[in-house]
Amino acid sequence: MAGSGGLISGGEARAWPMIRHLLSLCAAAAFLVPGAGAAQMPTDEQRSASKVANADPTLAPDLLLPDRHMAWWRDAKFGIFVHWGLYAIPAKGEWHMFNDKVPAGEYAKLAARFNPRGYDPNAWARLAREAGARYMVMTARHHDGFSLFDSPSSYGRFDSVRSAARRDLIAPFVAAARRNGLRVGIYYSPLDWRFPGYFRPRELPDNARLLKRQTYGQVEELMRNYGAIDILWWDGGWLAHQGSDADAAWFWEPDKLNRMVRRYQPRIVINPRSGWQGDFDTAEGPGPITGPIRARPWEKTFSINRSAWGYTRDDKVMSADEVIALLVNAAVRNGNVLANVSPDPDGMVPARQAETLRGVGAWLRRHGKAIYGTRPGPLQPVDGVYGATQSARSIFVHVLSWPTPELRIPLQGTVGDVRNLSGGQVHWKHEGGMLTLAIPTASRGNPVTIVEIRRGARRGGGTSPSEHSASPRG
């Protein structure tokens, strides 16, 4: 059952007991709204109670980008995430303040030590380009409340300009990304552990109001002060670390928040974690990607540093092959990948993380035509075995494993040619709507074998079933 922007339908009747209860709280909640006036119908709280999926487009259809403005994001396929802030100093991950119960005043002392002399966003952007990424997303402010930009709206001016760094660190990142031909993304978390009202918004309304005012003010600063921003990556929309982002929509008012964003950045791509509406869906963590092609564009995000998103001193780093496998499994299911790096306190990307990214880049330089600018299909993925992308007259079959020496794939239409893009021979036969592929072990790719199928008349004419053996051509 999905919520909508109109009247409650008969199919939504089961939600009314909860909605009636929530409506009784709306008046009490109104004081949390900056400049709140009379309640409107339906309220964010009503829709929060009745919705199912964070990215349900029926909740705010006018806030969704049209397909033509999403095309670049869908073509890009691969982005680099950067989690960096004060938490790099203790090197215990981005949740250090909360997990280790560090008092806000004690944690704030880290700002006096935050002076990243090695911070070179041009080096970050060059590494991202070398990795084959087409966009970068940087944490402007995480849950600890420390902002990497000059922020008059920050409560207590807890930002990099007032730290030992004494400068705005987002502005040079944005400039470096643009200089290197990358699309620019900003991560922002509305929650802030410094505010008791985040954990008890109804019991501590004055403090909660300050938190909400900070969020609206800082988001406006980020959208107004840095030129064109291509992606807004929300995180942490839930309250008191409970429920979902949608459960907290009554508090944050994502309609109002994202309408403000769109006033400054009409074509920005927005994820759904502010409450519900979003231009793409998200999936977090390095777990396997399975299932059929997904209807909506989506993004798989994970940290190359297995221990945390923020910097840690241990050396648990994903391999390039592991990242490539996730990238392929996302692309064949209509998704992108956003792979995170964790710079150290000086702003340097750890060497092993950089090595992993360079390995991904080397693979993409060879096989990028099967990833960039493609769309999934026409074949449904078979978990752990293969999936497909397509572009113009080509179908790219990404083979992850060979359960048998020959792989049989259902494929209608005429096949003109088959090539092994992994650099070896391929034997193929197409008859009765079934394509049979056989590739010698020595000619298979690692971690994926990519076979390009060209639609159209067969070489030499004719359409009768036959067997072929082809070697790679440049």
Low-pLDDT stretches are 1-40, 460-466
Overall helicity: 25-40%
Main sheet properties: 8 strands, parallel
Q: What is the residue-averaged pLDDT?
A: 88
Shape: elongated
Specify the structural class. Answer: alpha/beta
Radius of gyration: 25 Å
Strand order of the largest sheet: 5-4-3-2-1-8-7-6
Strand portion: 15-25%
> Please, how many helices?
13
Number of strands: 17
H and E string: HHHEHHHEHEHHEHHEEEHEHEEEEEEEEE
In terms of quaternary structure, the protein is single chain
Distance N to C terminus: 52 Å
Give your account of this protein's structure:
By secondary structure, the protein is an alpha/beta fold. The protein is built from 13 helices and 17 strands. It has an eight-stranded parallel β-sheet, sandwiched between helices. Strands 9-10-11-16-13 form a five-stranded antiparallel β-sheet, covered by helices on one side. A hairpin with a 2-residue loop joins strand 10 and strand 11 (394-399). The longest helix is centred in the middle third of the chain and has 20 residues, at 205-224.
In short:
The protein is an alpha/beta fold.
Features:
474 residues; alpha/beta; 8-stranded parallel sheet; 5-stranded antiparallel sheet; 17 strands; 27% helix; 19% strand; elongated; disordered N terminus
Which SSEs are present, and which pair or pack?
Elements: H1 16-29, H2 44-50, H3 67-76, E1 78-82, H4 96-99, H5 104-108, H6 121-130, E2 135-141, H7 170-179, E3 183-188, H8 196-199, H9 205-224, E4 231-234, H10 249-252, H11 254-264, E5 269-270, E6 281-284, E7 298-303, H12 320-331, E8 335-341, H13 351-367, E9 375-376, E10 386-391, E11 394-399, E12 406-410, E13 415-420, E14 426-431, E15 434-438, E16 449-455, E17 467-470
